[in-house]
From TrEMBL, chain A:
Chief location: membrane
Residue ranges of domain ABC3 transporter permease C-terminal in the record: 263-376
The protein's name in its UniProt record: ABC transporter permease
Bilayer topology: Multi-pass membrane protein
Cellular compartments per GO CC: plasma membrane
Species for this entry: Candidatus Desulfobia pelagia
From TrEMBL, chain B:
PROSITE patterns xref list: ABC_TRANSPORTER_2
Lineage, top ranks: Bacteria, Pseudomonadati, Thermodesulfobacteriota, Desulfobulbia, Desulfobulbales
Ranges where the ABC transporter domain occurs: 12-232
Protein name as it appears in the record: ABC transporter ATP-binding protein
Family designation: Belongs to the ABC transporter superfamily. Macrolide exporter (TC 3.A.1.122) family.
GO molecular function, one term: ATP hydrolysis activity
Entry-linked SMART domains: AAA (SM00382)
Length: 385, 232
C-alpha cells in the first residue's frame, strides 16, 4: 500500500462527496468544451462562408486615370483607354506561394451595349464561380441554362421593361431573360449579366478580362502577403484587399470568442470555488484521521500528498468526463446553431487542455485545504477523539 | 538528528516537564511538574482519574505535544529539540501508539490499516504485506485481514490497533486506555496480548488507564493526580 491507495480508498468510501466534486468539475469543463467547440465551429463556418463565397481581393488593370466617381455619381462619362487582362494569364493567380488559401477566382468582362435604344452595362461572368460568391444575389426566375440566357439587375429590368422569359437583342444577337436580380442596392442593379465567353464574343473582346474578384480563405491567412504575391504575378494589375470586409468579420468572430472566454472564466471560477469549499470541508471532517496519520509518523508532506492526490484523481475524472460530455453536447447543439454544419472530429488537443485544466483547477483549489490539513497539530487533532 | 545527550541513562527520561493550556485569559496547567524515568523492557502503567494529566503526558511522550517546560529524552535524544518533521520520522521508527477507541481508518481493510505505518517506508508491497500478515497472525486476526474495521468486534478492532502500533517494530509502545471500550473478558485478552509482547519481544510499554484492575498486568505503576506524579 502506498499513499495513493489511501487517497483512492478514501474517494471510494466517500462516494457521494466524490460524485458531487467530479460532477461540479465535469459540468464546468463540459460547458467550456461545448462553448469552445461551438465557437470554433462557428468561426470556421463564418470564415468558410465569407471566405469561400465572398471576394476579398479585387484585381483590376492599372490605370493612370483617377476615378471620376464619388458617392456613386460618375461624372467621367464613358471610360476611355480601358486596359484589360488576357484570360489565358489568369492561371498565374493559382501559382502564388499561398495558393492553398485561394478560393474562387471569378473573372469578368464588361462593356456597354445598346438595348432598345438605351446604353446598358453588360457584364460577362463565369456563373459557376460568380453565383456562390455573390451570396446576396437573389434570383427571381432561374439561373441561365445556356449562354443565350441572361440575368437582369432590378433597375435594368425596370428601365428596359423586360420580364422573365422576354427576349432582348444586344449587338444583333438574341437573348432570353431567365431571371431578375432582387434589388441589392449595389452596382449590379443596373446591369445585364451573361455568360463570360458569350459576352466577350458580342463585345468583340475574345480572351479579354476586365477585372477579377478573388476569394481567399482567411483563417489566419496573410491577406496582405497574398495581395503582394498576386501583384507580383501581374505587374500591370492593381490588386486590392477589401480589408474592411475582412476586419469586420474578424471583429464579429472575436466578439463571439470574447463572450465564450468570459463565460469560460466564470465557470472556471465557480468550479474552483466548489472544489475549494468541498476540499476544505473534507479536511475539517478528517481532522481525526489526519491526527492519526501524523501520530503514526506521517510527515506534513505525506498528508498534503494524500489530499492533493485525491484532487488529481477528481480533476482527471472530471476533466475526461467533462470533455466527453462537452464534445457530445456540442454535437447535439451544433446542428441547431449552424444548420448543415459538418461535425468536426474529436479535438484531441482540446481534450488534453480540458483534462489538464480540470486537474490544475482541482489541484489549485486544494492547495490551501491540503496545507491547512498538514499543519494540523496532531495532539489537537487527537484531542477531538 | 540533533540533540543526543550521553548523560541520559534510561530509555525514557522525563525531566521536570510541565504543560499549560490556554483557557480564556488564564493558563491552566495540565501537567504541573513531572519527573521520572522508564527503562528498556519495562511495562509501566500511568494511572489517574480523568483530568489528572495522564493523557497529556502520553501525548508528550509520543512527541505529539510540545511541553511548556522541561525535557523528554528517548534513547538519549532530546525529543523536542527535533523539528516537527523529524519527530514524525522519529515516531515512525521508535514509537507505536494505541489510541483510545481504536482509531482505525474505516475505509481501509484490516490488512491496509496495519500496513498504514509502512505506507511511507520504502519497503516493497510484498514485504509490507508479509510483515502485516505476520503481525496479524501474532494478534490472532490473520483470517480477517480483508474485512473492514466495522465488520469486527470491539476486541478485534483493538487487536488491529495493536497490530498497527507494532508493525514497524518500534521499541516503545504507548497505549491510551486500551481496554476503555471493551468488556472485562475481552479486556483481559487484550492485556494478555500486551503482556506477551512485553515479555516475549522486550517491547517497552507505557499504558495510561484509570482502571486499577488492569494495572496489575504491568511491572510498575506511576500514579498521577492534578498534573503531578504521586508515586513512581
Amino acid at each position: 500500500m502506498k499513499l495513493y491507495n489511501i487517497s483512492i480508498n478514501n474517494l471510494k468510501r466517500r462516494k457521494g462527496k466524490m460524485i458531487f466534486l467530479v460532477l461540479g468539475l465535469l459540468i464546468g469543463i463540459a460547458v467550456i468544451v461545448t462553448m469552445l467547440s461551438i465557437t470554433e465551429s462557428m468561426t470556421l463556418d463564418i470564415e468558410e462562408r465569407l471566405d469561400r463565397f465572398g471576394a476579398n481581393i479585387v484585381m483590376v488593370p492599372k490605370s493612370e486615370n483617377l476615378a471620376l466617381t464619388y458617392g456613386g455619381v460618375n461624372v467621367g462619362g464613358i471610360s476611355y483607354e480601358v486596359k484589360e487582362f488576357d484570360e489565358a494569364d489568369l492561371a498565374r493567380i493559382r501559382e502564388i506561394k499561398d495558393n492553398r488559401n485561394l478560393g474562387a477566382v471569378a473573372p469578368k468582362i464588361m462593356g456597354a451595349v445598346e438595348v432598345s435604344g438605351r446604353k446598358v452595362l453588360l457584364m460577362g461572368v463565369d456563373l459557376e464561380m460568380e453565383l456562390p460568391l455573390k451570396t446576396w444575389w437573389h434570383l427571381q426566375g432561374r439561373s441561365p441554362e445556356n449562354d443565350s440566357e441572361v440575368i437582369l439587375g432590378s433597375e435594368a429590368a425596370r428601365a428596359l421593361g423586360l420580364d422573365v422569359g422576354d427576349s432582348l437583342n444586344m449587338n444583333g444577337r438574341d437573348f432570353m431573360v431567365s431571371a431578375h436580380l432582387e434589388p441589392t442596392g449595389g452596382p449590379e442593379d443596373s446591369i445585364i449579366i451573361g455568360d463570360l465567353h458569350r459576352v466577350q464574343n458580342i463585345l468583340g473582346k475574345e480572351g479579354r478580362i476586365s477585372m477579377v474578384e478573388i476569394a481567399a480563405f482567411c483563417r489566419d491567412c496573410p491577406i496582405d502577403e497574398m495581395v503582394l504575391q498576386i501583384a507580383g504575378q501581374f505587374p500591370d494589375a492593381k490588386v486590392t484587399a477589401l480589408k474592411q470586409a475582412v476586419m469586420s468579420k474578424m471583429q464579429s468572430i472575436e466578439l463571439v470568442k470574447t463572450f465564450s472566454y468570459g463565460i469560460a472564466a466564470l465557470v472556471i471560477f465557480i468550479g474552483s470555488l466548489l472544489v475549494f469549499v468541498s476540499m476544505m470541508g473534507s479536511v475539517n471532517e478528517r481532522t481525526r484521521e489526519i491526527g492519526i496519520f501524523r501520530a503514526i509518523g506521517f510527515r506534513r508532506g505525506h498528508v498534503m500528498q494524500i489530499i492533493l492526490l485525491e484532487a488529481i484523481v477528481v480533476g482527471f475524472i472530471g476533466g475526461v468526463g467533462g470533455f466527453v460530455s462537452g464534445t457530445g453536447l456540442a454535437r447535439i447543439i451544433l446542428p441547431l446553431v449552424i444548420p448543415d454544419s459538418s461535425s468536426s472530429g474529436i479535438n484531441m488537443s482540446m481534450g488534453a487542455v480540458a483534462v489538464a485544466l480540470a486537474v490544475a483547477l482541482s489541484l489549485l483549489a486544494s492547495i490551501w485545504p491540503a496545507h491547512k490539513g498538514s499543519r494540523l497539530d496532531p495532539s489537537e487533532a487527537l484531542r477531538a477523539l | 538528528m540533533a540533540a543526543v545527550n550521553h548523560e541520559v541513562e534510561h530509555l525514557i527520561e522525563i525531566r521536570n516537564i510541565g504543560k499549560d493550556y490556554q483557557s480564556g485569559d488564564e493558563m491552566v496547567p495540565a501537567i504541573r511538574q513531572m519527573d521520572f524515568a522508564i527503562d528498556d523492557g519495562e511495562f509501566v502503567t500511568i494511572m489517574g482519574h480523568s483530568g489528572s494529566g495522564k493523557s497529556t503526558l502520553l501525548s508528550v511522550l509520543g512527541g505529539l505535544n510540545h511541553p511548556s517546560r522541561g525535557k523528554v529524552f528517548i534513547d538519549s535524544l532530546d525529543l523536542y529539540d527535533l523539528s516537527s518533521e523529524q519527530r514524525a520520522d522519529f515516531r515512525s521508527e521508535y514509537i507505536g501508539i494505541i489510541f483510545q477507541s481504536f482509531q482505525l481508518i474505516t475505509y481501509l481493510t484490516v490488512l491496509e490499516n496495519v500496513i498504514l505505518p509502512m505506507a511511507i517506508t520504502g519497503l516493497k508491497r510484498k514485504e509490507k504485506e508479509q510483515m502485516a500478515m505476520d503481525v496479524l497472525l501474532k494478534v490472532g486476526l490473520a483470517s480477517k485481514a480483508d474485512r473492514l474495521p466495522d465488520q469486527l468486534s470491539g476486541g478485534e478492532q483493538e487487536r488491529v490497533a495493536i497490530a498497527r502500533a507494532i508493525v514497524n517494530q518500534p521499541p516503545i509502545l504507548l497505549a491510551d486506555e486500551p481496554t476503555g471500550n471493551l468488556d472485562s473478558e475481552t479486556a483481559s485478552e487484550v492485556m494478555e496480548l500486551l503482556t506477551r509482547l512485553n515479555r516475549e519481544e522486550g517491547l517497552t510499554i507505557i499504558m495510561v488507564t484509570h482502571n486499577p484492575e488492569i494495572s496489575v498486568y504491568s511491572n510498575r505503576t506511576i500514579r498521577v493526580q492534578d498534573g503531578t506524579c504521586l508515586e513512581h
